[in-house]
Design a protein that fits this description.
Layout (H helix, E strand, L loop, with lengths): L4 E5 L3 H13 L3 E5 L2 H8 L4 E7 L7 H8 L7 E6 L3 H9 L4 E5 L3 H21 L5 E4 L2 E4 L4 E4 L2 E3 L3 H12 L7 H9 L9 H14 L7 E4 L3 E4 L5 E4 L1
Parallel strand pairs: 1-2, 1-3, 3-4, 4-5
Antiparallel strand pairs: 6-7, 6-12, 7-8, 8-9, 10-11
């Protein structure tokens, strides 16, 4: 069985060497880039299972790399941010990162995040063989290609955004809590003051509204989110 490949984009060579040694021992294949330009060039390679992306780097910083990718990447991105810098975390999620982890971090915590992300990707792939598409309220998800359409227009969603939208559509007209989204999609419990789910929902709403005059999502304050149904609703296997 081939090893899963991880791309590390971080100018801290000592850290990348330590992570390469540690994650290699855990069974992963690592490749490191030490500036944003070379990292961006490698990020388009879909053979990587995950990208670890630092914020502060020469040539292009992490945010500029995300902007260049334009939210069109299929490979999940775990953003490495400065501890306590909530603005960096929010901006990273807005630009298409799937999750974030604050530096300094414990290697075991990083490994847990990586395994959680890869586990949910594997779950999605296994589900692709049972459900080919969903269509509710002029939103259509093609699971085999992981593409989303709103009023027949292609919507560029990140992998995490696609999975959150699929979960909401699976539970259309029902409240789905932040805890449910975090545990079922991010594969971790929602921690206090964690705004990652809010940002992912905000991104999904904004992208759908670009092709729709009406909002497809409803926020229930203190409870969660609802995907609103229309007349034409269906799910095909």
């Amino acid at each position: 069985m081939s090893k899963q490949k991880i791309l590390i984009i971080d100018d801290d060579r000592e850290l990348t060497e330590l992570l390469t040694e540690y994650l290699s021992y855990e069974g992963f294949e690592l490749e490191a880039c030490h500036d944003g330009v070379s990292g961006l060039a490698r990020a388009y390679d879909e053979s990587f299972s995950l990208i670890l992306l630092d914020v502060m780097m020469p040539k292009l910083n992490g945010f500029e790399v995300l902007k260049a990718l334009g939210g069109q990447h299929k490979t999940p991105i775990l953003m490495l941010t400065a501890k306590g810098d909530n603005d960096d975390r929010i901006l990273g999620l807005e630009l298409g990162a799937d999750d974030y982890l604050a530096k300094p971090f414990q290697h075991r915590e990083l490994l847990a995040r990586i395994k959680a992300i890869l586990r949910r990707i594997n779950i999605v792939k296994s589900n692709e063989s049972t459900v080919s598409h969903q269509q509710i309220n002029e939103v259509r998800l093609e699971h085999n290609t992981r593409q989303a359409f709103c009023h027949q227009q292609l919507v560029e969603l990140t992998g995490t955004e696609f999975q959150i939208l699929a979960l909401l559509m699976n539970n259309a007209s029902q409240i789905v809590s932040k805890n449910q989204i975090s545990e079922q999609v991010l594969k971790r419990k929602l921690s206090a003051f964690d705004r990652s789910i809010d940002m992912h929902i905000s991104n999904i709403r904004r992208k759908l509204l670009a092709f729709s005059a009406s909002d497809k999502l409803k926020t229930i304050r203190g409870a969660g989110y609802i995907f609103l149904t229309g007349e034409n609703t269906g799910i095909n296997g």
